[in-house]
Design brief:
Layout lengths: L1 H18 L11 H13 L11 E7 L2 E9 L6 E8 L5 E11 L2 E6 L5 E6 L3 E3 L22 E6 L2 H6 L11
Antiparallel strand pairs: 1-2, 1-8, 2-3, 3-4, 4-5, 5-6, 6-7, 7-8
């Protein structure tokens, strides 16, 4: 009888250990729950509570400056963007368009172009993929390319994004 009681007590203790998270474990949802929530957000069943990627992203380098501004559009989840990437004195890319977020990706749909880019979004950096459709080449001068360009965030302020200008002096986010 004692052996049975001892075995029952050990079984309950073992269950208790797995039920409560350890002090160093994070409170993140299980991967299956996170994937289900992401699918619900993408399907429009629930709204995405993460902050919008609105702001100014900019990188200065020896060949020039790469800039991306993201501002809100008329709808709550709708956004607009403007970008410029410079690769020297006469080699650059320009474009504006609409933008939407899908999980950890930003989908950039350029105005007056068939170019659509699915960029990585890490919260403080937007990274364009290393290979793009040839339609995107039309946004660039002869030797320019948007392939692999990365834009680190410099401001979360939408006013700063609205005030950003291209190297030619035109508003980046019209």
């Amino acid at each position: 009888m004692r052996a049975l009681a001892l075995l029952l007590a050990l079984g309950l203790a073992a269950c208790g250990k797995h039920a409560a998270p350890a002090a160093n474990e994070s409170e993140a949802p299980p991967p299956a729950a996170a994937a289900l929530e992401q699918a619900a957000v993408e399907a429009g069943v629930i709204s995405d509570t993460r902050p919008l990627p609105v702001g100014l992203y900019r990188s200065r380098h020896e060949a020039g400056q790469d800039s991306l501004c993201i501002v809100r559009d008329t709808g709550a989840d709708r956004m607009r963007f403007g970008l410029e990437a410079a690769f020297g004195e006469h080699s650059e890319c320009h474009g504006t368009g609409s933008l939407r977020r899908s999980g950890d990706r930003l989908i950039l749909n350029f105005d007056r172009s068939a170019c659509i880019i699915v960029a990585g979004y890490e919260g403080d950096r937007v990274s364009l993929p290393g290979a793009l459709d040839e339609e995107c080449d039309r946004l660039c001068s002869e030797r320019g390319s948007l392939e692999g360009v990365s834009f680190p965030r410099v401001s979360r302020d939408e006013g700063v994004a609205h005030d950003a200008h291209s190297k030619g002096g035109k508003p980046l986010c019209p």
